[in-house]
Design a protein that fits this description.
Elements: E1 11-15, H1 19-31, E2 35-39, H2 42-52, E3 56-60, H3 68-76, E4 86-90, H4 95-103, E5 108-111, H5 116-133
C-alpha cells in the first residue's frame, strides 16, 4: 500500500445520509492525513463543493432530496468542478447502478461496506496518480 504521507492535506467530501458511513469514512481518511468534509445530502454537498473545492468526492447513491446520480450530474455539468473525480457509493453491486454511475460522470463505483484500503486506493488512483500524469 502507498505511503501514508502522500495523503496529507488531500481534501475529500463524503456525501452520505448515513451518519455511520460518514463517520467511518471520515475517521479512516483523517488517520491517513486527509482533510475530510462531510455532507448529509446533495443539497448540502453542492455548497460545500463550491466552498472547499475538494480533490475527490465520495457520494452515496440513495439519499433523500437529491440522490447521488443527480448530485454527480450537477457537479459534472459545472465547468469549474467537472474535473473533480467522483466515486459513487452503494450497497447495491449491480451492473445497472455501475452503468448509471458512469453515465452521470462518476469515475469509480464502490460497494458498501468499503474498507480503508478501498478508500485510499481510490484516492491514490484518481488524485495522486492523476497529479503525477498532469
Amino acid at each position: 500500500m502507498a505511503e501514508e504521507s502522500q495523503f496529507e492535506g488531500i481534501k475529500i467530501i463524503i456525501i452520505d445520509d448515513s451518519k455511520t458511513i460518514r463517520r467511518t469514512a471520515e475517521s479512516l481518511l483523517k488517520k491517513a492525513g486527509c482533510v475530510v468534509i462531510t455532507a448529509i445530502d446533495g443539497f448540502e454537498a453542492l455548497a460545500k463543493v463550491a466552498e472547499y473545492k475538494p480533490d475527490i468526492i465520495f457520494i452515496d447513491i440513495m439519499m433523500p432530496r437529491l440522490d447521488g446520480y443527480q448530485t454527480c450530474t450537477l457537479i459534472k455539468n459545472n465547468p469549474v468542478f467537472k474535473k473533480i473525480p467522483i466515486v459513487m457509493l452503494s450497497s447495491k453491486d449491480g451492473l445497472f447502478e455501475r452503468a448509471r454511475g458512469r453515465i452521470v460522470g462518476a469515475e469509480h463505483y464502490m460497494t458498501k461496506p468499503f474498507t480503508r484500503e478501498e478508500l485510499l486506493n481510490a484516492i491514490n488512483t484518481y488524485v495522486i496518480n492523476a497529479k503525477k500524469v498532469a
